[in-house]
Amino acid sequence: MLLSQKIKIEVSKQDAATLEFMQGKCRGLYNWWVMRLRNGERWPGWQQTKKTLAKSRVHDPELNAVYGKLLHEVYFRLDKAMQAFFRRVAAGEKKPGFPRFKPRHEFFTLCYPAMYLDRIKGNTIILPTGGGGKWGPKRHPNVIAHLTETPPEHFREVAVSRDAQGNYYCSFVYNDAEQKEHGGKDNTRKQRKQRLMRDNGTVAFDLGIKTLATGVTDQGRFYHIGGFKGYRWYNKQLDKIRSKRDKYKKKSRRYIHLSKVYKRVSERKRNKQCDCLHKASHLIAHRLAERAVVIGDLSQRQMVIKKHEEETPKERNKRRIRNRMVYNDWGLYGFVQMLTYKCLRFGKELYIIDERDTTKMCSACQNKQDMPLWKRTYRCENENCGLVMDRDENSAVNIYERFLARLGPHT
Ligand SMILES: [Zn+2]
Q1: Based on CB atoms within 10 Å of each CB, which residue in 96, 281, 336, 410 is the most buried?
Q2: Using CA atoms, how far apart are residues 174 and 66, in angstroms rounded to an integer?
Q3: Is 178 exposed, middle or buried, given 0-12, 13-18 or 19+ CB atoms closer than 10 A?
Q4: What is the pTM assigned to this prediction?
Q5: Which residues, other chains included, contact 91 with Cβ-Cβ below 8 Å and sequence gap of 6+?
């Protein structure tokens, strides 16, 4: 399957300036098209738009200093955005999301198709720039980037990006099957051994806010996988920095400095959280012995609290904290995506099933009762049952049972 490896690169000051120049020009071209489309022009598809590049070069000769394939990628990228937009419109979505302008403070990712990259020598990769040959003398020499890790042997394309601190990265897209054939890098990487898989084993997970995932296996064993814990601390820091910043005049020295600090801290938070989700999904996909992994369908879940009239200040505060958490910090949707590809990669089967009422239902007697979020323990109200169980564990058992019930006797 296709995977991606992101490697930090080191470039000279001059080369960094070249990368900045090229991404600025690519973004300009992209935004120029977005502007035309926003003014109601029809999208002619990338084949037709590509033909307009010659005209754009006449209009802005500086484009000649940008590597041509990067400019082509701009059209592909916009085409993808437009096709996704059309798809959403066709699906009747309320907010189909028209492609947006790319802001100036963000780095416009540069995509190099692999076949145009010269062989990598040692850990040095040469990223071409525009000009030379029939285009006349090169304005910027090719960028010589030093890779801080060994890249995969066979790759498809390379994307150059920058983070908030101004570090540059190359992301290599590669097929892991192609690597192994050639005794590639997977052997050189330290890898933990995958546990022996139990082919008829099943583990069902309840995904939640307090605990990232609570699971139960066919052998009745429970797993508790905690999520990222530090978001509260980070949010407090971020709020502090922002309110401090907003006391200064925009574009003043202090304001700019505090903006940088804010960016740095929020990136650190994002990285930590992402790392945590990666580890959790890796644990489930790679380290657990059960072959079948079952989770509930998140799209059916109402996580966001809606605003209603006459809410008390306390309710308002609660709603804001909760929704910030769901939108910014939770990352469960990303977690499911990671889980999907990791399960595929390690030969596991992922099932996503209807999870309606799995928290409300008693796993022993199927009695249903309301379970507001603050109730962390399920206490069955049915007199003959009286089950007392952790809320998430109860829900995991329900998901497991539902999964079994769904399977026919001979499948
Ligand atoms: Zn019960």
Answers
A1: 281
A2: 25
A3: middle
A4: 0.69
A5: none
Q: How far is the CA of 188 from the centre of ligand 1 (A)?
A: 53
State the amino acid at position 129 in one-letter form: T
CA distance 227 to 335: 10
Q: How far is the CA of 361 from the centre of ligand 1 (A)?
A: 8
CA of 223 to the centre of ligand 1 (A): 22
* Alpha carbon of 371 to ligand 1 centroid (Å): 13
173 CA distance to ligand 1 middle (Å): 51
Distance 40 CA to ligand 1 centre (A): 60
Q: What's the CA gap between 142 and 285, in Å, rounded?
A: 42
> Residue 6: which residues within 8 A CB-CB, separation 6 or more?
169, 170, 171, 172
pLDDT digits (tens, 9 = 90+) for 185-194: 444 445 556 6
CA 367–ligand 1 middle distance (angstroms) = 5
How far apart are the CA of 350 and the centre of ligand 1, in A?
A: 29
Closest CA to 163 of 28, 27, 264: 264
Exposed/middle/buried for residue 252 (C-beta within 10 Å: 0-12, 13-18, 19+) = exposed
Contact criterion met (CB below 8 Å) for 218 and 401? no
Q: What is the pLDDT of residue 406?
A: 81
Cα–ligand 1 centroid distance for 379 (angstroms)? 8
Query: How many angstroms does the Cα of residue 384 sit away from the middle of ligand 1?
Result: 8
